[in-house]
Amino acid sequence: MTLTRFVLSLTLVALVVSTARVLAQNAVPQLDISQEIARQTVIAQGTPDVYQGHPYLVKNPDDSLILVWSIGHGGHAGPIATSDDGGTTWKRIDAAAPESFQKHTNCPSVYRLVAADGAVWHWVFSSQPWMARIVSGDGGKTWEEKEPLGFANVMAFSSIIPKRPGVQDGCYLGFYHHRRAADGTILNEEPPQAGKLEVVMSETTDAGFTWSEPRVIASVDGKDLCEPFAFYSPDGKEICCLMRENKHKGRSMTTFSVDSGATWSPPQDTSWELTGDRHIGAYVGNDRLFFAFRDQALGSETRGDFVGWVGSYEDVKNAAPGDYRVRLLRSYAKPWRGDCGYPGLAVLKDGTVVALTYIKYRDDENKHSIVETRFKVEELDQMKKALEEKK
What we know:
Blueprint: H1 3-22, E1 30-32, E2 40-44, E3 52-59, E4 65-71, E5 80-83, E6 91-92, E7 109-114, E8 120-126, E9 132-136, E10 144-146, E11 155-162, E12 172-180, E13 186-187, E14 196-204, E15 215-218, E16 225-232, E17 239-245, E18 253-257, E19 268-269, E20 276-285, E21 288-295, E22 306-312, H2 313-317, E23 324-329, E24 341-347, E25 352-359, E26 369-376, H3 377-390
Parallel strand pairs: 1-23
Antiparallel strand pairs: 2-26, 3-4, 4-5, 5-6, 7-8, 8-9, 9-10, 11-12, 12-13, 12-14, 14-15, 16-17, 17-18, 18-19, 20-21, 21-22, 22-23, 24-25, 25-26
């Protein structure tokens, strides 16, 4: 064998090994409900001039929903909608918010926090200026602006959880990310400057009115960790924080805490199946999880689309493939499909999963819309079973 042929042979072997590694997410069934129009509701239609972007959703105990989003990619806040029937129909209540809310920018998020005295507060946080916020004490009927938290950030809280699972006593942990410059400065500039993305955490003991000085919980050299989603293990003894890796050259990452967020494990890779941007998840059984996110698995046929993943907590912890993935909605954004995600997610009392996103959901002249799709995981299970029986 000539040297040239030998080198070529080694290259082909390396390519095969690399491809097998990249396409590892194909180990689980890939379902698709993206073309099932009857499941879908367009909440806010994009137009040739209006881009509906970056939604976030909170569910109340009675299955009513509050939804916020922005106009433009990372643009200004303002839109608020509510649903009294679990997302079947929606009502815009933009006028209930202070006019100043429209000056807040970049990916608003909404949360329901309960104080020790039982008072319920709904908070909306936006990235700028300096973690801006508005609050409602009457279920979203009226809102008022509060002073910004003053936190330098790339994006406002992307998840908030009770400090003690199942306990509503005003004590919560909030997770977001910031950008650190080479000299250690935490940046709060737009557009984003050069620097490293890190995941940070802050705590409140009064249901969101005051927050502790943020501290870094996950930072990895050569990685950009961001958009954390935190949730408890089924037994409530451990917090998992699932993170986007923004260089998009590898997998998403997780870190874990067994002491209510005081300390965190070194970040580790997820499976390829769970690799994506801006994960939002919920339990759909005692030890079964559903996550919605923008697919970023290298080599995936649905990369850039709005997808879901079903598996167990142990699958997440051990970077196992899970049960299956499902394409929820296809993105027609160009030149690359990956402008979607930042999902709203709710599991209703009857088991219906409401998953919504901002997405260019048709190949036409309109910009992004806020689109919802609805299903039950049992339906997906049946689809998986039917798919396997065909093989």
